[in-house]
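Design job #97: recover the sequence.
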């Protein structure tokens, strides 16, 4: 039987600068969602990449005195490097300047044209280069500085030129029906409501080509025009699945779940499904928008330097500390803030103290008192089975949460088990049992180690490197680490030799402020 397929994407980032913490956040959250489904037995395809065309790229390159291609090459390499630094498990990295993507973009254009949805006209209106977006005049305002701004707070400029249009107005009712009939198409629900009211307010046809520059994908049959960057950008998601070759095995992954930031919901939940309906392609499963991250830590920038840089942040706090902090601390879908104190408090409390100490204390007791092998499992009493069952039951809670992109809730459930396992360990006092009832001590240590095994398996999507170390310490075979191995059948076998326990989560220790 073939496994269920699961396709998940991040937005593709503009490589007009280096990756920042917002990009890192989106990638690692999507990575956790992808890893979860892989461990849950699905055949996963996880895509990320860079969005290399458009005026923003062209203008930045001009400012730097290089070609847009050079700018894209330089920064796309940084985005790839960020993926490695974050331990992202993406299966592909797409760059929109690749040949496969030109072919796919031209194919979807032709399909929309064949459906009668593309016509030539003249565009006159407002455009934000920073957002690469057209805005209606009623969405803009002139501020005190006499500059006109769009709804995202970026300056807009007047554009007037010959342009091809997409008949977006013809899709108003179909889009409203989509939001109505498939309420989980856009999440969180506040975003769906926003999108629905934007569509209800009336859709104008969309300008989808430009003639004043040539950094883009040529319009088929009219090379004077290049495609509007969002037409090609959105198409990346089907390019990577093999479009236009819908017979390719990779096409089996489509449709995808798109993870994006809240500022680009309109493109993904209005334009994209309209393009796909027009081209006769199945719609995405879901578009989920996460919130924005803000730096609220003054102290952080003093002591650490430029912490907006994800590389510095990982170097300073540790990779899994950064992953854990953002995934646990920020409810996925809402805005979040980060600060030095928040990162240190959260990771020291949950990782170093709760999980780290539990593992270290129980495993060093095993090393000392059980000859370094998995202890004997005597008769389990209710306290033992309760904590073991709680650990296994966390899977169902995490599974439901992850299916709704509630990443923080999944982690909360897993770390509730860790907190309860600490209480169990303290209440059972295995160190006291050593003299009074050594057999019972072994059972308590076995139970604790087995709970750590289960927690270690469950933690893999979020803190993969540390979870791997934890499972190595328990001598869990590499092919016994999927969620299907969370059951009693795969429990630790007494007598199995264990390596010497190594601390997995170092405590963050405050460095004295450097004096200038
Ligand atoms: O929008 N916090 O690219 P981009 C959280 N190329 N997320 C943030 C953020 C922040 N401070 N800043 C940006 C684009 N993001 C387009 C996408 S998809 C076909 C094309 C998120 O480099 C942002 O919301 O400006 C988006 O999802 C992603 O980073 C890339 O942003």
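Job complete. Output follows.
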């Amino acid at each position: 039987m073939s496994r269920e397929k699961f396709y998940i994407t991040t937005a593709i980032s503009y490589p007009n600068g280096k990756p920042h913490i917002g990009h890192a956040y989106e990638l690692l959250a999507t990575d956790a969602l992808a890893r979860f489904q892989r461990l849950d037995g699905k055949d996963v395809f996880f895509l990320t990449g860079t969005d290399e065309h458009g005026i923003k790229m062209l203008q930045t390159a001009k400012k730097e005195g290089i070609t847009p291609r050079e700018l894209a090459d330089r920064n796309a390499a940084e985005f790839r490097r960020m993926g490695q630094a974050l331990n992202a498990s993406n299966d592909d990295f797409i760059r929109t300047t690749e040949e496969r993507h030109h072919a796919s973009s031209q194919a979807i254009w032709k399909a929309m044209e064949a459906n009668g949805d593309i016509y030539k006209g003249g565009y006159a209106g407002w455009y934000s280069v920073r957002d690469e977006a057209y805005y209606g005049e009623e969405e803009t305002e002139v501020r005190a500085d006499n500059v006109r701004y769009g709804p995202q707070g970026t300056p807009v400029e007047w554009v007037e030129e010959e342009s091809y249009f997409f008949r977006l107005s013809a899709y108003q009712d179909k889009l409203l029906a989509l939001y109505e009939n498939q309420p989980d198409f856009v999440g969180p629900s506040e975003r769906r409501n926003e999108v629905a009211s934007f569509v209800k307010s009336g859709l104008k046809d969309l300008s989808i080509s430009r003639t004043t520059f040539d950094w883009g994908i040529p319009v088929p049959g009219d090379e004077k025009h290049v495609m509007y960057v969002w037409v090609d950008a959105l198409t990346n998601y089907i390019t990577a699945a093999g479009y236009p070759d819908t017979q390719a095995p990779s096409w089996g992954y489509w449709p995808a779940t798109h993870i994006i930031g809240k500022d680009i919901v309109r493109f993904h939940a209005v334009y994209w499904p309209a393009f796909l309906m027009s081209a006769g392609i199945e719609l995405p499963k879901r578009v989920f928008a996460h919130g924005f991250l803000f730096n609220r830590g003054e102290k952080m920038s003093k002591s650490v330097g430029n912490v907006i840089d994800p590389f510095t942040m990982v170097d300073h706090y540790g990779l899994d500390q950064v992953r854990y902090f953002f995934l646990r601390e920020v409810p996925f879908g809402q805005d979040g803030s980060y600060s030095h104190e928040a990162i240190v408090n959260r990771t020291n409390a949950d990782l170093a103290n709760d999980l780290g100490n539990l593992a270290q204390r129980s495993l060093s007791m095993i090393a000392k008192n059980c000859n370094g092998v998995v202890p004997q499992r005597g008769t389990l009493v209710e306290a033992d089975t309760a904590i073991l069952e709680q650990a296994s039951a966390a899977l169902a809670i995490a599974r439901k949460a992850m299916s709704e992109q509630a990443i923080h809730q999944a982690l909360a459930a897993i770390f509730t088990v860790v907190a309860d396992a600490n209480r169990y360990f303290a209440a059972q006092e295995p160190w006291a049992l050593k003299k009074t009832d050594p057999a019972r001590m072994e059972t308590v240590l076995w139970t604790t180690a087995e709970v750590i095994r289960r927690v270690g398996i469950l933690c893999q999507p979020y803190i993969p490197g540390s979870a791997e170390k934890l499972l190595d310490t328990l001598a869990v075979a590499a092919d016994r680490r999927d969620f299907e191995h969370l059951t009693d059948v795969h429990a630790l076998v007494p007598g199995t030799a264990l390596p010497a326990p190594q601390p997995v989560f170092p405590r963050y220790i405050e460095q004295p402020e450097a004096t200038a």
